[in-house]
């Protein structure tokens, strides 16, 4: 198997692992009528699980400690990926289905590119920003339509605002993690993020330990999001990007919302709703064109030959 092909399959594996995060988090939190693990406990416990595994990996590979300049981006990545994203997602998924959340998370690639353009001062063409605005408008329209169907009102649900917070948090984590990836290496970035969270994640998990009986399925879902979503999935994803090329492999992210919607059927018994699939397809199409514009540099206008100016 060619290196590029192997990298593509590793990318698909990483995206599939991340996609199952939504139904697994919903399984861990439980619905409003049958609550299981709290979003606070899931946030801290999954980071603690990943932190313990990260300590083993960093010790076995004898990885050097981050420098003072690298700690700030790692801290911001930790706040985004280890705290903000799982907490907002867990709070939201107690009130909405994972298929509903998948439509929102389809915006994550565009949100990451937009934040990278702002934080890392990367230029983006006007068409990219048009696609970003169109994608956001589609998600808002989806939210308003679902709210009118479920509650009879035409307004954003509180859970939808939490989902937007989860997207922005994940984008922040990806962008600031990318700042130090060339120096530390991709796998070590996520490991140091999880290790830096241990002083908060372990006490936080103990303080929020559930006081009611919890279904075994919720505990298994917690193990999944801690071991795979927070840790092992990044190994497959980052390795795939390195082997297959970031530009090519990153396109498989467009499959993630559909993987999430499909995984929720056997795991949660959710029904495939045409409106959810339709909006997910629309948002993914917008993201596809937006990513192409973001990765394509703006055309350089060369002066006319008669001017005899250097380009």
From TrEMBL:
Protein name as it appears in the record: EamA family transporter
Subcellular location: Membrane
SUPFAM superfamilies xref list: Multidrug resistance efflux transporter EmrE (SSF103481)
Keyword annotations from UniProtKB, A to Z: Membrane, Transmembrane, Transmembrane helix
Membrane protein topology class: Multi-pass membrane protein
Residue ranges of the TM segments: 37-61, 73-93, 99-119, 126-146, 158-177, 189-212, 218-238, 250-269
Family listed: Belongs to the EamA transporter family.
Cellular component terms per the entry's GO annotation: membrane
EamA domain sequence ranges: 6-140, 158-288
